Amino acid sequence: MEQNRFEIEAKRMRPALLRMAIRYLENSDEAEDAVQDALLKLWFLRDRLDQYRSVDALAIVITKHLCINRLRGTRIEKVDLEQGISIGGGENPEMKLVEEENMQEILEVIGTLPDLQQSILRMKHLEGFEVEEIARLTGSTPVAVRTNLSRARKRVKEQFMIHSKVWN
């Protein structure tokens, strides 16, 4: 899809996506962010949008999942301080730093994966899409998505273990 046509479609879909996001999130700022993220994802898929029967349906599914992910994140953040301490077990700062460094290494390894594996891994684990939805979004089959997920996970694990041995 060309840039001009994408902009026209995005402007047309935006009000409906925003209304839906507000219903989910009950916060216009959060809804605005979710819609912006959804349109950004569509922008990255713009070369393949002509393959879909309904770009509107795709936009709705993406927006819905982004809203749900935001709600999950909000639920996690709304924990009382006392309850948070008991859940976290008073984790020490050193362990927290190690976990953050490990996460950064994992994200760097993910960045080295082939584009398709990288996209599928991010959709599954960071955005919460199901395998069937990823297959539809990528124009692939669920079996191919599972295979790519498996290969991506294996590669991330191998590279992470190699990096961990180097530091130890």
TrEMBL record:
Keyword set, alphabetical order: DNA-binding, Sigma factor, Transcription, Transcription regulation
InterPro entries attached to this UniProt entry: RNA_pol_sigma-70-like (IPR039425), RNA_pol_sigma-70_dom (IPR014284), RNA_pol_sigma70_r2 (IPR007627), RNA_pol_sigma70_r4_t2 (IPR013249), RNA_pol_sigma_r2 (IPR013325), RNA_pol_sigma_r3/r4-like (IPR013324), WH-like_DNA-bd_sf (IPR036388)
Domain RNA polymerase sigma-70 region, chain residue ranges per copy: 11-74
One example GO MF annotation: DNA binding
Stored Pfam families: Sigma70_r2, Sigma70_r4_2
Record-annotated RNA polymerase sigma factor 70 region 4 type domain positions: 104-155
Annotated GO biological process: DNA-templated transcription initiation
Family matches, as SUPFAM superfamilies: Sigma2 domain of RNA polymerase sigma factors, Sigma3 and sigma4 domains of RNA polymerase sigma factors
Keyword field contains DNA-binding: yes
Protein family per UniProt: Belongs to the sigma-70 factor family. ECF subfamily.
PANTHER family: RNA POLYMERASE ECF-TYPE SIGMA FACTO (PTHR43133), RNA POLYMERASE SIGMA FACTOR HI_1459-RELATED (PTHR43133:SF8)
Name the UniProt record assigns to this protein: Putative RNA polymerase ECF-type sigma factor
Organism of this sequence: Phocaeicola vulgatus (strain ATCC 8482 / DSM 1447 / JCM 5826 / CCUG 4940 / NBRC 14291 / NCTC 11154)
